[in-house]
Amino acid sequence: SVGRRLLSLSALSSALVGVFPLDGTDRGRILAEWLRSKGGYVHPGLEIRRSDPADPASAPGIFARERLDENEEILLIPPGCQISDEGGDDDESDPDMVCGTVFHLIREMRLGAASDFAPYVDYLLAEPQWTRLPSAWSEEGKRLLNGILRNHTETAIPPVDPTAWIDHEWRTICKGGDDPFEEQAALVVVQRSLDGLLLPVFDTMRHRNGRRLNTEGRLSDEGTFRVQTSREVGPGEELYTTYNLCQDCGHRIESTGTPELFREHGFVEPYPRRWIF
């Protein structure tokens, strides 16, 4: 029943809270220490914190505590620290809902504090940004959005199918159920994964194109995800990645603009913006 599902979610959250207290917990530091303990690398001059330290509701991000040179390596995320489809054969033409990655994340979330990814799972539960995706909106909100996009022009305004991640990709393609807990995991993968990979620490970095973009990330041949600065970064400056104009972005360069980022990540990007018709 729905009641049991909500109770199980509450129990999971309580189990995690027992290990990671909510009050005063520096989840960014815990996450960075966990990655280092697993053979990854986080530059000592980086800080994961709120964009406004005085506002607990402000968005988290990665900031430089010291000057960083151009082409300086700042993150290494080895395969053992990534949540992936574990060698599945998901259709690469639909990388934003890689079913195997969703099922892997569900297992780790159900393990809670016993998971090898416990600090990352705790971070995801404490930062429920997936609720911003239109696919997570109320039925009334979805109808309103779809009506605005489809009912006032001859051709629908992008993005295409802005609210279909659960009804189509999760339930139809992945054969997933209607458990809210599992639907949450599916939306986390849509919002935070890079070609089906969940990359702890890296996915706390926010998107920005234009002159503020200051990092480049790529997957090496051995499967390690490497991030380096693309220009000099000053103390206190936020580190930004790009969700659609990266070196390894493939088809997203031609197919993903501002509306598609809204569908997949739940925000309207700052300028510069791109509209693909």
Provide an overview of this structure.
There is one protein chain. The protein is an alpha+beta fold and 277 residues long. The chain is built from nine helices and eight strands. It has helices at residues 2-19, 27-37, 99-111, 118-126, 139-150, 165-173, 180-192, 252-255, 258-265; strands at 41-42, 46-50, 60-64, 73-77, 206-207, 215-219, 225-229, 238-241. The strands form two sheets. The chain has a four-stranded antiparallel beta sheet with strand order 1-4-7-6. The chain has a four-stranded mixed beta sheet with strand order 2-3-8-5. The chain starts with a helix and ends in a 12-residue tail after the last helix. Residues 1-23 and 90-94 have low confidence and may be disordered.
Alpha plus pi helix count: 9
Radius of gyration: 19 Å
Count of strand segments: 8
Instruction: Round the mean pLDDT to the nearest integer and report it.
Output: 88
The general outline is globular
Assembly state here? single chain
